[in-house]
Records
---
Amino acid sequence: MSAALLRRGLELLEPPEEYHKKKPVNHLRENLQYMLKGRLVADKAVTEQVLAQNRGRKSKDQPPEKTEKKKPEGTVFTEEDFRKFEREYFGVP
């Protein structure tokens, strides 16, 4: 590369002189006053009402439904029926 191109590249990388002339200004105080000026606090009763309405609506907040467990049904056959079956099919006295 030629020296002229390198010099031109370095000039582009350096900040302009106008940038160095201006002093940085801190706008923190003005910004804080602006942010706090428009602050609106809702009434506590209203916020509690909104929170109460939204509480418990999510599925994770709902307790699982309890299903009644079915009791195992008793057998229809009696011991006498089982003994009769054994005698007929297995030949056990």
Note: The mean pLDDT is 79.
---
Amino acid sequence: MPASQQRRALTLVPLVAIVYHEVSGGPFGVETCVSAAGPFLTLVGFATFPLIWSVPEAIITAELCSLFPENSGYVAWSTAAFGRRVGWVQGALSWFSGVADNALYPVLLAAYAQNAAPELFDKDGYTRAAFVIAVTFALTAVNFRGIECVGIAAVVVAVVALVPFVAFCIVGIFHGSLSPSNWLLDRHGEPFELRAASFEDVLWRPYLSVLFWNLNYWDSVSTLAGEVSEPGKTFPRALSYALLLVYATYLLPLLVGIGVSAGSEEEISRWKEGYFASIAKELGGWALTSALLVASVASNAAQFITEMSSDSYQLAGMAERGMLPRIFAARSRYDTPYVGIIASTSGIILLGFFDFTSVVDMLNLLYVGSIVVEFAAWLVLRRRHVRDEHSASVFRIKASTPACVLMLTPAFFAMGLVTYFSSIITKIVLIVAILVALSLYEVQKWSVGVDNSAPDDDDDDDTRPREASPLLRSSEGGGGGGGGGGDATATTSV
């Protein structure tokens, strides 16, 4: 059943929690930035990168989700702007990146568990492998129970994950060992100086990879747009609240943690995955450490289930558009796309045995390949629908095309840096992924069960929003709304 004909179950608070977990979920995993670039550049990065990257991506997501309130999300945007082939390839890159991203959370859970109880893990890695597989299957089961269950779990876990870090910050501030001078140090424990040598000494690949990974995926929630109540109102508000939450979640614990335990080169070198737990033990003993470990488990679990939702609903949305076999649109008795969940789980298990940094590097470049198309699609669609009489019925920022291009310029520069500093192997993975996606596109056109009557690249019928969008109703004389069509009619602008 198309998303527009279903009851839209996601409201504001669950959507905020889902966005928060898909992007952040807490400062888990940011520790590598400190040892790679030093305290000063880490704080500068997490203070400025959300402004040049996260804000534009959130704005684009809010605008296009209200224009295309369907589960194919960014696939619909790219298809509308550039045709069916580009939309399919962009969707494939996004799905590859999303699955790779989701494979990291069982790995991070294993890292925190191993830090807490190293005696339970054997040296050969068999215990870790069993742990990763068991966690993957256990968390996948939550997704089978429906999007409402995922939304409720995201809200509960957001509270569980945030409370220990609030306590961490409060205890750290009043502990007496916090030294603001630590904030200004380089990775060798010396005061940072604005000279070439300071930048040459930075380990740019892990620094940029981890920074970029922790602040992207704002568009992932677009593949749940068909499940969101009143998308024209809900998406802008949810993304705004989540943006503030993400900003505070990263910056405040980093300020406290660095101030307490980054005063020398030796201390700075200890900042690896899971190091916040070590600082918590120093500040509040086992009580605070245990609370932080529980938060890390809960947060990584929530990030897993929300990303799994986005990945599986994306495949369902593509199937509803006739871009994948219809089996991917099939729903379980809990109204969940179970085939997409199974496909995503298979990829996660495969990637769960790779090195953390290597997977982050790979998924970031796959994501860059996808997001470049999304940004370009946004500019094209804004110009195409600028005179549409219904344009005011969806969220739209009041800015000219040159102003929008100017807003995206720093983001394109950031993507250029991530691409430049990625490894040769990662660049090869991106090229191979694009070639595989193009090949799969040609295969799926002739596959049994694919709707080959659906428009292809040269048919402009597929370059418009689906039945839930007011723009489609305009072009068809106001006829074609589904049961969810009214959800997109709220007038919102900034």
Note: Residues 275-320 form the longest helix (46 residues).
---
Amino acid sequence: MALGFFALAIFLFLGLDSEDGYASYATASTSEGVEVTYGSVLKLTHERSKFRLHSHDVPYGSGSGQQSVTGFPNVDDANSYWIVRPQMGASAKQGDTIKSGTIIRLQHMRTRKWLHSHLHASPISGNLEVSCFGGESESDTGDYWRLLIEGSGKTWRQDQRIRLQHVDTNGYLHSHDKKYSRIAGGQQEVCGIREKRADNVWLAAEGAYLPITESK
């Protein structure tokens, strides 16, 4: 685990710039309850199943044919890291905190594609498909997710229960115990569902959290 965090820190140092030319991160293993800020790199844990939100360079065999998104059972997998980004055109910058109700994007760290949804049917349950789409210079409103914090919290922290509601379809990011048997054998389906359910709840888990930007 320590080696994984070290490799992640090196990646962040080389790949993510801050205003001062470097970035200082707090790892989740030592900083439970820290603020989730723009530029942070994290894993999202499905509360009920404990599977991590995951993607890999494998397309769906149906629906959109875009890069697949699944729930992954193991903690140590680099394909489960996501970078927290603001919506296009927003004035937010790295290190800013994120309030409940804010529209965000999640960029898959390994493939640089965006967590995405649309009206295509998901492969197993026939709900709204969730995929990865686009790239550094290609993003649209299908990549927009509204952060909804459960409970009284106003800004996103690592220990808070959250839902992510897709802006275009109103579907909540969802997973369940329906598993793939072939290409992604043992991995859970991730999809969108328009009703609030217990299986819509996620928590920020392992990762590197960019400290809050101080006001000047």
Note: The first strand starts at residue 26 and ends at 27.
---
Amino acid sequence: MELDIQCEEMSPSRWAELLSTMKSCKTIRLDDCNLSSSNCEDLSSIIKMNPSLTELKLNNNELGDAGIEYLCKGLLMPSCSLQKLWLQNCNLTSASCETLRSVLSAQPSLTELHVGDNKLGTAGVKVLCQGMMNPNCKLQKLQLEYCELTADIVEALNAALQSKPTLKELSLSNNTLGDTAVKQLCRGLVEASCNLELLHLENCGITSESCREISAVLSNKSSLIDLSVGDNKVGDSGLALLCQGLMHPNCKIQKLWLWDCDLTSASCRDLSRLISTKETLTEISLIDNNLRDSGMEMLCQALKDPKSKLQELWIRECGLTTACCKAVSSALSMNKHLKVLHMGENKLGDAGVELMCEGLLHPNCNIQSLWLGNCDLTAACCATLATVMATKQCLTELDLSYNSLEDDGIRKICEALRNPSCNMQQLILYDIFWSSEVDDELRALEESKPEVKIIS
């Protein structure tokens, strides 16, 4: 049994009602429910009396250190079998870490700990690392984003990594680590016995200086399949170093996020080689990099390579224009694997999207999700988009937000939605102005086709 409630204010009567339900739940999720430390006392009792509970998610509640102390009384009971604990943004400080250390040391069932968005600080996380080093600890996933960590944390983290072969996922994004610490961490990861699968280091003060060490992790850890270094000043020179590791035969990367990394079209030659030859790579994000049309044309050439197995390409806000759309269309007509394409916030224009639609309509194209928000589109391209919607049954998600489609354009889109061949499940239309008559049409469509979700 599963209890999943979000964004609900808990009255005493509602809370009492839910407590009786929780006694038999395997999963309890109560994000954004205005819970406090007093609720944690009740939850502790539930943990004690419900040995089948394996997942507890309490994100975005003001639990505080006192709440965690109550909660951990239940978590420390021998009957507790909890595997996943989510406490993101719960107003915790370093004081909670001693209590959580006891849980890590005592509960081998706990495999996931998510404590991001809390002011744990370096001192607090050092205490957590002590818990991780206990032989009883079998932690597999540790999420420490936005925890006010500094470079001083790395020695303790490396010691924990050395002793924890079970660890598979480590997220340290949005902490002020810097190059020296990241280099030290990477050297530790290369030596560690753990088979790390996910490493997230977004907004950690990384520059090209530490990319050689990150590259070494990629070439030494064939287990690493998900790397995110977005929002760091990696630059073209850093990307070239990363690609050395990414192109290594040992590297089996599947998901690579390089958003806002100060890349230019100069990086696209290396990225194209990666996309066309690394058959494990299925998802890449290059959002908010100044790749320009020349860079996109190189990427499209790579997408046409039969060895490319890329399924998701995120290329929003990359300085693209109509000029690259013929190349995009050609890639779409030849690539059978691409399922998700994010091209929003680029000045593609009606002419560009018309060109893209030629590729989208090709039998080889299997796009499921297409994002074209804020692309300087008008009603002029909507007839062609409507044809794609009605023809391509694989297309289930379309974002046209922040475009001046007006009544005429939206009516054409509505016509496509009414077509029995249209398989659209989610249509996103934020910040588009239409008349009350068109609004009535959209509402009527939602009623007649409940499987279609129109978000506006």
Note: The chain has a mean pLDDT of 96.
